[in-house]
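Practice set, problem 2.
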Amino acid sequence: MRYLLIGLAFVAAVVCIYLAVDYFPSQALGSTGPLIAVTALLIGLLVWRFVVRHRRLRDWASATGRIESCMPGAVDEGMQSYQCSYIFWVDDARQGGSFEVFDKRGRLEEIRAGLIGESVTVRYKQSDCTQSIVEGSQIKGWNIS
């Protein structure tokens, strides 16, 4: 799903830039310049995030972890973020990290019941195991990031 969204965002940006350059008179292009710049920046950030995550999943070591807790986070446009933490072990040392689940407001207990105690695959940087991410984009149907 993320790949599709990134692709669609890229195509939309290219179309917007094409339309702005091709159809607007040169005087009006000055007012659309900031829009083009912001669009290009946002697409660049999305691509960068995708590339970094893909590289980490490919190059970092893996370990089995367990989700320990979930707490409510920020609310944005009716959607609630829930911060979930996980633990994993590297060379007999306990490590941890967190990820976000996005869902409707008021679903904390349901998310806790479904996720706490679940086993996850964690990717971590071998030279600094405090840097880690959970592999995958969904856990039991919930989108994570």
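Problem 2, part (b): a different protein.
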Amino acid sequence: MEAAGIVSENRYPVKTGHRDYLSYSALSLFQSCPLRYYFRYIAGLQERTVSASLVFGSAMHRAVQHHFEQLLAGGPPPDLDTLLTVYQDAWRARDLQAVRFDNGTTLDSLGRLADRLLRTFQRSDFAHPQGHILAIEEEFRDRLIPGGPDLLARVDLVIDTEDALVVSDFKTARTQWSWGQVHESATQLLLYSELVKPLANGKPLRLEFAVLTKTKVPALTIHPVEVDDHQVERMKRLFERVWRAIQAGHFYPSPSHLNCPTCPFREPCRAWKG
């Protein structure tokens, strides 16, 4: 196969698919497995399957995005049927043959879950923000490190309130987030805050995760993230070093009992000879 040929000949065509920017998801992927980053972003291999949980999260994001877009346009909040239609349209855009359903989940069971979660979302304070909506699923891009690549960020929601600029990232999760999960995920919002800062016009930034749990009784919980200049600088240094490693072609497997079983690049990884 062509994929096996790429890796077995030990060629690393860094200019193939070369990009002058790095997204947070790409940064995280390189940290978890540099070889998987190579297969996806450098070699351009197609992922044969995608987890249903990822498609579900994306479809929920699209429904929540539609809700805030209607508010930004000056209209009333869309009703539940409208949000469910947006959710279902996101699924219809997918090739269901490539979706991997795990743990007994089905398209119907996920649809019922979406109904419960969207009802919870509509009742939450998060769905009815106080302030002026500035951005919804907006792309921000700028250079954080002199001589380095741009950081490309897709920010879920930015709201201008009387006392702060609120940057929110929406997540769906199996269970309530712990403090550790918030702390581990905070790096994403801390990097994003550097790009959004020019919109603040001197106001303080308030960062938060809005986590909607897929529990029997769903809940939407707001988790604040403290703006920490030391951590921001630390993430900039990490961002810079990951980019240097990518440019130098430092791609290698990072075996993990959590990630390997569901990795879409298991076959080319097995063919990789180092």
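Answer key, part (b): The chain is about 45% helix and 20% strand. Residues 5 and 11 are 9 Å apart (CA to CA).
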